Amino acid sequence: MATKPGTGTVLRQRFPRGYARGERLVGAPARGLDSVGHVAWFVVTAIGSIGHALRFYRKEVLRLIAEIGMGTGAMAVIGGTVAIVGFVTLSGGSLIAIQGFSSLGNIGVEAFTGFFAALVNVRIAAPVVAGQALAATVGAGATAELGAMRISEEIDALEVMGIKSISYLVSTRIMAGFIVIIPLYAMAIIMSFLSAQVTTTLFYGQSTGTYEHYFRTFLRPDDVAWSFVQAIIISVIVMLNHCYYGYFASGGPVGVGEAVGRSMRASLIAIVLVVLFASLALYGTDPNFNLTV
To answer: Which InterPro entries match (predicted)?
Structure first.
């Protein structure tokens, strides 16, 4: 006696595309949870291996610090990451001064351009711009490098030789990014301050005394300190994100390119979210400035 086919079999035969889409939709929560767990395992392993990397791979950390700071090959000719971050923050500070002076001038308070530059540069613009420059230069390069090593089986070869690949390839890059971001971000902050002042005083003719009065009055040292904390957090997240996509890249050269694109999208979102949540936590209830000063 023949057995009647089940409802699932009938639906799969009659509506193959719709049935496949339904299966993907039903399994999406489980796949998402599995992905989160995979990322969490990678993050915990990479951060937990930092001590091992500093103990056994100090030379690799030093090499990566030099590579991240000054770059290699053609990047070294133009100054590497330092030059790129400096140029991008220089442009960002100038744009803040241009928009601030023009917008505040509409209501007759263009003297507050110094206040605007001190507030926006430190709390929003500099962390976002520096993070994006770091992701576009160092992060994308790390994804491509690790992805190329994965598809050519170099990472598997490291494991065969008894080298902890995550410690050697990922933890060292996290430490290098953590160390390099401090002087790099200090330079970025200085460039954003100088560009805003030069634009306001030289191109718009505002007196230097007026600009510096409002700039120094509303520039708070604790804002600068928290800005550095944001930059450090962003650097760690960016390096973890790009190393994750590169370490698990697959599909040949095309897969490496796709991994670079996905990692950049994730980094851009993560950078903005870090600044958003930091602003909510630090200034959500108290903006920490008083225009009557």
So the answer is: Permease_MalE (IPR030802)
Domain assignment present for residue 20? The answer is no
Q: Is residue 38 part of a domain?
A: no
111 pLDDT tier (thresholds 50, 70, 90): confident
Q: Is residue 271 part of a domain?
A: yes
pLDDT tier at 72, thresholds 50, 70, 90:
low
- pLDDT for position 19: 58
Q: pTM for this one? A: 0.84
Could you report the per-residue pLDDT of 195-234, keeping only the tens digit for each? Answer: 888 888 988 888 888 888 888 888 888 889 999 999 999 9
Kindly write down the DSSP assignment for every residue of the chain, as one continuous string.
-PPPPPHHHHHHHH-HHHHHHHHHHHHHHHHHHHHHHHHHHHHHHHHHTHHHHHHH-HHHHHHHHHHHHH-STHHHHTTHHHHHHHHHHHHHHHHHHHHHHHHHHTTT-GGGHHHHHHHHIIIIIHHHHHHHHHIIIIIHHHHHHHHHHHHTTHHHHHHHTT--HIIIIIIHHHHHHHHHHHHHHHHHHHHHHHHHHHIIIIIS---HHHHHHHHHHH--HHHHHHHHHHHHHHHHHHHHHHHHHHHT--SHHHHHHHHHHHHHHHHHHHHHHHHHHHHHHHHSS-----TT-
| pLDDT band, very low/low/confident/very high, at 146 (cuts 50, 70, 90) | very high
* Owning domain of residue 243: 63-280
234 occurs within a structural domain: yes
**Cα end-to-end span (Å), the chain:** 92
| Cα torsion angle, 118, 124, 128, 131, sign | positive
